[in-house]
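Async update (no meeting this week)

Hi team, since we skipped the sync, here's where things stand on the single-chain job. The sequence we agreed to prioritize is pasted below, unchanged from the tracker. I ran it this morning and attached the output directly underneath so nobody has to dig for it. Comments welcome in thread, and please keep replies under the output.
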Amino acid sequence: MPISEDTDTIIDSTYFHDFDEVQSVLDLSGLQTSAAELQGFTLALCICSNKPSRQEWFIQCLDLFSSGNQADQIDQEDQTFLISFYDFTQAKLANFTLSMDLLLPDDSYPLSQRTKEVAKWCGGFLLGIGLYQTQETLSEYPELESTLLDIEKISNVEIPDDQDSEGSTMEFDLFQITEFLKVATLTFHTELCLSKEAELEKTKPITH
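Output:
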C-alpha cells in the first residue's frame, strides 16, 4: 500500500516522547525492534542530506525489522502511528537541541535495562548511517569516523542484572553517554546535512 507524502500531523506528538507507548505499537505491529533502536535508526537516516521519503523509510523498516510482514499486514492505525513517528522525528531534528530526550526507558526501569536500550539506540543509529553513508563519504570527516567508533563501542555495553545499583557511578556514566549521543547526533546533522545545504545555497545563481 503506497504511503501518502502528505505532511499533515496525524497523531498527537506527545505519544512519541514515551518509550512505552512507542514500544507497545511496535509489539502490536510485529516489527521486531525496540523504540530506542527505531529512533536511533530514524535519526541516522534523517541527518543525511538524501534522507528517505515516508514510503522508503516504511519499506526499510519492514525489510529490516519484520519477519515477512508486508505493509498490508500491519493494522492501518499502527501504520499511521509509525509514519507519524517518522514525521515527528524529522521535525524534531530540524530543531534538535541538547534538551531533546532520546527515546529511552524512564528511571522506573532497572539500570541494566536502560543500558541495554541505549546500546540498541546505538545499534539502530549505526544501521541507519551504514545504509545512507558510504565509507568514502565518511572518510571526508575524520571526527565523524571517530565518533562512530565510540558509538559502536557503546552498542556493545552491558550491565549484568545483578549489578543494578541506583545512585552508583554507573547511573552518572549512563547520563554522560546519553549526552554524548545527543552531541553526536547534532554533529552528524550539521556535517552531513546542514553544511551541504549551505554549500548548495552558495552555488545558486543570484537573481535580481
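Quick observations from my side:
The chain has a mean pLDDT of 81.
The helical segments are 19-29, 35-46, 54-65, 76-94, 111-132, 135-138, 142-154, 169-203.
Reply here if anything looks off.
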